[in-house]
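Note to self: keep these together.
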Amino acid sequence: MRIEDHVEITDYAVNLYWMFSTTELAENYKENIKKIQEGAKSAGNRIMQSRARNLHFYNYGNRLKPRKIKLFGVLPLYTLYPSSEHCLRDYIGELGREIDEGISVNAYELIGKILHLVQDVSSPPHVAPVFHSLRTRDSFEDRLNSRIKLYISNYTLSQEGFNQICCSEEYPRDQQCIESIYNDAAGKTIDYIRNKKTQFEVKINGELKESGWHLFWMDHEYMQSGSIFGKRPKLRGFGGYGPLGKHFGQERITTSRDRYEIHKNVYEKLSNFVVRKSIEDSIRIMHCIGQMIEQA
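Structure:
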């Protein structure tokens, strides 16, 4: 997701929490919303937690291993962590110390950083994962960014729905709840792009077929198995783009091999799913942090 998208989703989630929760914590979230947004915007801006050292991908299949980066292949410079779990655990530890010692405004910035990482794993290219950066942009995230306000406005929540989000008994009531929500959020995204139930109609060379999201993102396992596209993983532990990976949102696509036609509603359904899940996971995290405070 783009930075602006994290800020927009975080703003909406905090306001929903404030609207439906009757707790003092909800008032504190609302009062410190700018700090929370600042954290969502600046996740990874510290030297030891910078994006150069910590990439925000999900460690699907536990294949993304830390790598020692050396100058001239000899002098150790730093350790590169391809997945976001290293940063997440740092933030959780810092937040735990804040709660133990008395919450300051810094805690709200940490909450924003945590929300950023949890929201990231709603994005298919982050969980497949497929490497992308500001230099190698992702078409899904570009399109999401151009329509983020629309997708947020499509989301509605009732008091009953809010209660269901917050009252789940499946998560622990301590610091582990944050990581549990993070892993569960990633698992739901992975299931969406791999599940046959979410396949969609696509015309390939004029013939209507059912296909899946591997046309856009292929996880490491799919590529290793020898996909129909004949690609193999290029980066250790990462998946790769399918033949349409650079064309998310386009209704007519011509590749070197085939012509594709995909209805825009296919793209809209996935995009609304990602934004809805990001908002609800953010609400879960805020509720979870409230339980951590109660336990302290």
